[in-house]
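Show me a record, fold above all:
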Amino acid sequence: VQLQASGGGSVQAGGSVRLSCVASGSVFGINSMSWYRQTPGKERELVAFITRGGSTKYADSVKGRFTISADNAKYTTYLQMNSLRPEGTAVYYCAADLNYRGSAGDHYGYDFWGQGTQVTVSS
């Protein structure tokens, strides 16, 4: 099982970026997906979270500007980031609580992380 994040880059303050994250491998169900971000010297923080049923949760600092969505059939989550600020500069990571088929049977509720993707917001 792998999570592949993409879509990072450089943008000016006020601009937008859309991140994508797809789960691949022997996945047969997604329970929830999340986006985190981390800057040097700081702990990784939760940015947005979405359940299989579509319930969402956001960090207070991004409410009203970021939107998380998911395509459960494609095992993909998106993070649309609008009105970006310089403090949004970070490495963004996706994570998923998912179900997958292993060699010894099915596994439920395991956490996986994608590689980070850099987002840089210039003032």
Observations:
- The CA atoms of residues 9 and 119 lie 5 Å apart.
- The chain is about 0% helix and 65% strand.
- The mean pLDDT is 96.
